[in-house]
Amino acid sequence: MEITLKVFRYNPEKDKRGHYEVYKVEGDENDRVLDLLEYIKGNYDGTLSFRRSCAHGVCGSDAIRINGRNMLACKTLVRDVGEKITVEPVLGLKIVKDLIVDMEPFFDNYKAVLPYFINNSPLPEGGRERLQSPEARAIFDETTKCILCACCTTSCPSYWANGNYYGPAAIVTAHRFIFDDRDEAAAERLQILSETDGIARCHTAYNCTEACPREIKITKVIGEVKLAMVTGKLD
Amino acid sequence: MTKTHQFDVVVVGAGGAGLMAGLYASKTAKTAVISKLYPTRSHTGAAQGGIAAALGNIEGDNPDWHTYDTVKGSDYLGDQDAIEFMCHEAPQAVIELENYGLPFDRTPEGKISQRPFGGHTNNETGKPVRRAAHAADRTGHMILQTLYQQCIKNKVNFFDEYQVLDFIMVNGKAAGVVAVELSTGELHIIHAKAVIFATGGHGRIFEVTSNAYAYTGDGAAILLRHGIPLEDMEFFQFHPTGIYKLGILITEGVRGEGGVLINGKGERFMPKYAPNIKDLASRDVVSRAIYTEIKEGRGVDGKNFVYLDIRPETVNKFAADDGRTNVDGSKYNLTAEQVLAKLPDIIDFCRVYLGVDPVTQMMPIQPTAHYSMGGIPTNKFGEVVIDDKNTVFPGLYAAGECACVSVHGGNRLGCNSLLDIVVFGKYAGLKAAEYANQSEFEKLPAEAESASKAQFETLKNGSGKENVFKLSNELKKVMFADVGIYRNEKDMLSALEKVRELKARFKEVKVQDTGRIFNTELLNTWELGNMLEIAEVIASSAANRKESRGGHSREDYPNRDDANWLKHTLIWKKNGKLEIGYKPVTITKHQPKARVY
């Protein structure tokens, strides 16, 4: 079948503003949008630029907007989106070139929530693991799935309105540690998220949950963090 | 303008090995980690099933059994001192990851959970043993995340999205690397006393692969150009279960949980090939079995695939036939809920890419190019060794898939790669820092970046008669078809000729993008140059080894030949030509014997 792609193009070294180019590619319904972009780059225009690596939805490199919605190019098939496909960079981060955006502010927000395990108590005797029940492990299972692709944060109207907002992905990361009963810094993270640019900026638009390619129920996760903040309880 | 930075240690690559090296080196030395991807995009994150360690959390196990299984899995080509070292380090390495916060799955008692995996056995009963410590089917993702998080906590210096282009050596010692900053196109020299390569593998030279686009063999190709040899490059692992056509990995953990392989006639065929551990034989054995079933007309609908079946009713039927029980002796009974909880990602992959639900349908699979056992030769401390006497190259280290210690020999066991990166990444980091702290900076040569500049100029100024995309596809096809699971003299030599033709045609490419900012076309083209280099090395090494061992299976030499070939291949590039030599295998406790599963 013939697939028509309308692709956002912007070359900062040549263009004052972005524009769209239309490409027609022969493909089939099982092609990934990433395969089509690779084909265009390889055969029509080598200058087309986008990030990609694993090509199966686990590395988080290729978050883009497909027909207006944030998705991973490698995890979206033609059969999911149809034969007419519009491809654009995600919103809310500065466009650097074509589909590539500046990810630094996104990672800065990630780093702001203490995204690492903190436990200053002595390690268990005999060089063993800290024990954790399967039930305690299950509480934060969902948020360990995050691949930091930024689909959620760049779909969030509150983040578009105010780039200082930490955004859903940072809250997902905070949740992963706050609800890990081995970690000792939940209170500090809740304090960070209670600041002006923290969780209060979430207005439950639900876009993040719809955008997540890992199917993390982000709005629910944010709700759990909010509740912990209000009640001071983690269970 | 080229910018110069100075660090005691520079690590190239930020997957598991690079992050572990960076974490350990930075404890005592000023360290930089450069990576062409954001660290969390590294291919470690795609590893699924687990990390091997004889923790004995669920049933009896010990590091000596792990050592023997790894030696046997390697088809006796692995160096036994290094294997023993790794397997004895393993329990502590996994505990360390847990102590860093890694969210392993847990046993009812709260210990790290473990599952069976191919080739890992109880050496007394010969039955599969639960040795793979896991976090659902995203163990690699959790290792990558956890190590990156620890690096942030410990303020490791990252140069994200910097592509390494060259290695700087002065007076026969390491002196740094040249890299390009993707977002600006500027060249940077990282002047260092010690350099650690942790650049991953090169599976992208094959048509059907589980590997990321980033896996183009950059580190190995760069060092080859500097006269450093590569070791055992003919040994490349084809993982038995990749998604049909796409090559996306379906973890061996599926078979660890009781899944079985089924041919086009609806038969479970592994008992024919591995009567003892059947579907959990090592990967080379299972891939050959699948290939044989297909070749003999028992693929599904006459096509190049068979099925992997994890439907609970199938699993439980065969578990009963096999006498598989839970540890307490009760009947093994897998439920749909457990499949969903233990294997969520592969279920997601099957639904997304195939429209197949593994809980109720079988998965169409074929072997997929997965892992390079060969690479940059090192000793067990990550020091690069450059000849048959294991002479150390001062200041140069390698770890992870790009390295060849050799702990995997002719065939790697599942879950030993995550172990490899954690153990040898750590020691490479420690050793590099120790070396740097006792050494002075070598004086940089004038214009250390000139070779990199020249490479880029060539790619920008070719005739344009050839197309990169097309060359790349031709390379992948010929390597998969002719230097794949089964090999023979005629096919390999014709593949070698084809690769050399492609190398010649590569000189006629012309990069269209003349810009500096994120010139991904220029970088992809440069990467293809590395892939061609590595493909030539693999085809040459493979055609040279006239026996079958581990992942190197020859139709014309079907048997292992210890009398002539129990030795490592070393291959050098000298004056543009490849030269082959050998080095002995270290054998300590386990004399080679027939390998039966």
What does this 3D model show about the protein?
The complex is a heterodimer of chains A (235) and B (597). Chain A is an alpha+beta fold and 235 residues long. In chain A, helix 6 packs antiparallel against helix 7 and helix 6 (167-178) packs across helix 9 (218-231). The model of chain A has no long low-confidence stretch (mean pLDDT 97). Helix content of chain A is 31%, strand content 14%. The termini of chain A are far apart. In chain A, strand 6 (95-97) and strand 7 (100-101) form a beta hairpin. Chain A has helices spanning 33-43, 78-81, 104-112, 134-139, 157-161, 167-178, 186-193, 207-211, 218-231; strands at residues 2-9, 19-26, 63-66, 69-72, 84-88, 95-97, 100-101. With 597 residues, chain B is of the alpha/beta class. In chain B, a hairpin with a 2-residue loop joins strand 21 (567-574) and strand 22 (577-584). Chain B has helices at residues 16-25, 63-73, 80-99, 139-153, 218-225, 253-256, 270-273, 283-298, 312-322, 336-342, 344-354, 416-437, 450-460, 468-482, 489-506, 520-544, 562-565; strands at residues 3-12, 31-35, 51-52, 114-121, 128-133, 157-160, 162-170, 173-181, 187-197, 230-231, 236-243, 260-262, 306-309, 363-372, 376-377, 383-385, 392-398, 403-404, 486-487, 553-554, 567-574, 577-584. Helix content of chain B is 36%, strand content 21%. Chains A and B meet through helix 1 of A and helix 3, helix 4, helix 11 and helix 14 of B.
